[in-house]
Design a protein that fits this description.
Layout (H helix, E strand, L loop, with lengths): L20 H8 L4 H7 L4 H12 L6 H24 L16 H16 L3 H14 L6
Helix pairs in contact: 2-3, 3-4, 3-5, 4-5, 5-6
Length: 140
Amino acid sequence: MSHSHGNLLGEPPATLLPPTPEADAELAEGATLAEVAAHHPTVSAVWAGLAEESLHRTERALGDTVQAYAYARTGYHRGLDALRRNGWKGYGPVPWSHEPNRGFLRCVTVLAAAAEAIGETAEAERCRQLLRDCDPALGA
């Protein structure tokens, strides 16, 4: 008699967000991240792009870090909404290997870095822990 045990630890299945073809098409056609965010405000990937641009400016000022924090926080919350709509209960795998999950995970990454930069160390650590919980391979 053959038994299929699946996940013995009882961990929920990985949450896989759906693709965002409309937003992706607009970006491919040359729309700016801000334009796509305005047209598709629920898409974490565009917020992640805006946050990364702000955080990685060559001559970054404090305002750029705060802007990165705000963009990342927006994408993080939109991502949480999308994850919950797709069955996530606040825990369990959200793998980086699934491309549509990356917008949310990128937002959490930038949120951790921006929070650290403005002295929000508890927030930065919560974000790093969330990344480890979502996908241990990220090694946040």
